[in-house]
Amino acid sequence: MRAMTVAARYQAVALLGVVERNAYLVKRYGWWELAFFVWTVANTLTIVFIADGVEATGGRLDVERVTASLLIGAVIWSYLGIVFEILTETVAWERWEGTIEYTFMAPLPRAIHLLGMGAFAVLYGVLRTAALFAVVALFFGLGFPRADFGAALVLLAVASVSFVGVGMITAVLPLISPEKGAQLGFIAQGLLLVVSGVYYPVEVMPGWMQAIATVSPATYALHGIRASVLDGAGVGAVWGDLWPLLVLGAVAIPAGLLVFRAGERYAKRHGKLKRSG
Amino acid sequence: MSSAVEVQSLYKQFVHRKGRRVERSVALDGVSLSIARGECVAVLGQNGSGKSTLVRALSTLLLYEGGSAHVFGHDVQREPRAVRRLVNRVSVEASFFKRLSPAENLAYAARFYGIGPGESRRRIPAILASVGFPADRGRAPMEDLSRGMQQKVALARALLTAPTLLLLDEPTTGLDPRSKREVQAFVGEVRRRHDTTTLLCTHDMAEADALADRVGILHRGRLLALDAPAGLRRRYGAATLEDAFLAATGRALEDDEEAPEEEAA
Questions:
Q1: CB-based contact A102 B89, cutoff 8 Å
Q2: What is the pLDDT along chain A (277 residues), one digit of tens a residue?
Q3: Residue B214 in contact with residue B222, Cβ under 8 Å?
């Protein structure tokens, strides 16, 4: 029993170390963080203005609802981008700094290492996207009087498990290709969202894309969060989106760890761990 | 004395594909060596001789194709986590998060060895002081520190985890003479005080002579000789270690070999 407690403390300290290091980096790159936030706001505005633009060019639509729907899509895109970016940095940033060999030769279980990166990504992602959501909602004067933000947060939390699992898979790419691996993370993010109804209902896509959408966690996250924020659906009402997210999450984390371990073995066999590409 | 490191017929090759062509370069070709607990063994070799590959293999950072390596009885490939608890390393590049301070970098490393925030707040200033790092620079970003200071922090990082096997991969290369002497003195002191076993890979004959109990000559992935410095000089009828190296390999230590890709990177 005591040995188990010691082991659990050991893992908790290691996980804390990963989260803490990322927090230090955010602090030390504070002005860059601000610049990226401004860029994200600008990027989100370009999407959300589309509703006003369609109306101005003669289209008929409920501008406020479409604006809010686009905002939710843009915010989830941003959130997913943060999660994938931070997990991809598990390898990419450490290789750039030259610290990767020290981290990989430490007695740190890879699962704890990746879960630490995932925990920080979720915490940081929630804070950044909440700020983004508030700024853009204020800009457009959106009120969300019926919103159930609690249910939306539950959906985001459960979806995050799957996002972290997929992020672990993308994190391995810089191990396999030091030169191009990190960019492939953006491709994964784009592919995941294009089939998930990020700015449009899934039903407008061709049948084969709709089939892929059924295994994307972003599909259920977007659908459920829109229902909670726009129509006030509670946790019970979004159960149809929650249970697939629970199933996908249960599969995604072990799959992510398996793929990362395979990538790590490949890198150690071919001497690709230390290359700064 | 019981054996701290036991390497038997270690073989590592790197495979490179260039279109349809497959090229193989052998980095370690049947290396065998044994290091006793508390002993310091230096390995001399040119760039590309396989020194860093040997250190990486013992650090669990490379998978080898043949032979075996044990650290304090633990198989390096089969029990990597047990080995990682016992080993730390200082390499030629200090390798830190450059915007973070020495204290933040050391705290990051410490957490992986179960050292929590309270303990690291006590131990980090003490260990930085013990390597002669000025207390008033503890919060400065690493990128603002000289190369010598960075290498002292690298030593502090290695010692923070109290390794029983310390792997030093050209720890003083590129340092000014004063920093070099300080680092060498500290390595000697750590060995005397903590009974740490040390594998030192170096270009520096004087460093090897001063720090090591035995010196090995690694050439093109093969360990040609391993003996006490005096024994090596006798064996090759040489007045200096440099002459012994020249006699063993036919080349001066400063000459570069064409390195396998992993070594050259």
A1: yes
A2: 788 888 889 899 999 999 999 999 999 999 999 999 999 999 999 999 999 999 898 888 889 999 999 999 999 989 988 998 898 888 888 888 889 999 999 999 999 999 999 999 999 999 999 999 999 999 999 989 999 999 999 999 999 999 999 999 888 888 887 777 777 777 887 888 899 999 999 999 999 999 999 999 999 999 999 999 999 999 999 999 999 999 999 999 999 999 999 999 999 998 888 754 3
A3: no
Q: Do B265 and A275 touch (CB under 8 A)?
A: yes
CB A79 within 8 A of CB A121: no
Query: Are the beta carbons of B109 and A102 closer than 8 angstroms?
Result: yes
CA distances from A254 to A169, A258, A259, B15, B227 (A): 10, 6, 9, 30, 49
Cβ within 8 Å, pair A25-B100: yes
Using a CB–CB cutoff of 8 Å, tell me whether B59 touches chain A: yes
Q: Name the DSSP class of B33.
A: E
Counting every residue, how long is chain A?
A: 277
- Pairwise CA distance, residues A79 & A108, whole Å: 27
Using the Cα atoms of residue B111, residue B117, residue B120 and residue B125 in order, give the sign of their dihedral: positive
Return the CA Rg of chain A. Answer: 20
Please list every residue in chain A whose beta carbon sits closer than 8 Å to the beta carbon of residue B107. Answer: 17, 20-21
Nearest-Cα residue of chain B relative to residue A277: B265
Structure tokens at A243: 């249970």
Q: For residue A184, what is the enclosing H or E element? A: helix A181-194
- Tell me the chain B residues in contact with residue A109 when contact means C-beta distances shorter than 8 Å: 81
Long-range contacts of A34-38 (CB under 8 A, 24+ apart): A37/A128, A37/A131, A37/A132
Name the 3-class secondary structure at A234.
coil
Find residues 96-135 of chain B whose CB sits inside 8 Å of chain A. 96-100, 104, 107-117
Closest by Cβ to A269, choosing from B63, B91, B93: B63
What chain A residue is nearest to B139 in terms of C-alpha separation? A28
CB contact under 8 A, A97 and B157: no
| CB contacts, 8 Å: A277 with chain B | none
